Amino acid sequence: MEHIKTSTGSASLTNAAYREIEERIVTLRLPPGELISEGMLVETLGIGRTPVREALQQLAREGLIVIMPRRGVAVSEIDVERQLQLIKVRRELERLMTRLAAEQSTKTERTRFMDIARGMRRAARHKDDVAFMRLDLELNLLVSAASRNEFAQRAMALMHGLSRRFWYVHYKQVLDLPYCARLHAEQAEAIAAGKVRDAGRASDHLIDYIEEFTRAALDAPPSAMTKSDPA
To answer: What sections of the chain are H helices per DSSP?
Structure first.
């Protein structure tokens, strides 16, 4: 049995349960359509029923699971058209948060943005998908923190899981990883330099490519929708 090691306290237990379940959904260890139950997760994770239930409620708000009264819980299906709707909202939020980060980030944050940019350029040169995934998550979190806007942060948090899962499913078939990594690097560099307009443009260029990537997934082979592991 796999148990989560965590500090005491309801919030930390809920966060630990959420992180573990979300990662399993995003990486397709719990694939679309999979039926899951609180009892199964309690046993698998070694964590109490209340934190697991709270984690599932959060995942339902984010659209990663569907709670069916008296029937249980199912991992949500992947819908390209729905992903395109998400991108319309994400474009505006991403631009806003990127511009705010360029205005308000601290010296320490700007240094880290430059570190991420260098890492993204290395990932582009070496076509390193694992490094890219880790840096992408770190960049998202850093932009969110540096924006200093809790309402934008909450809205964006609702989109991250769905976006990450969609990327995970389709990146081998349709993603130009070096190009995408360079776009992330340009966004991070503009923020680090405090160039607000350049940061906004870099964000738009990145979302342009994400939309192109999403539309290309419409023509991806059926195997792209099945469980797979990254190289």
So the answer is: 10-26, 38-45, 49-61, 80-104, 107-126, 129-147, 150-174, 177-192, 196-216
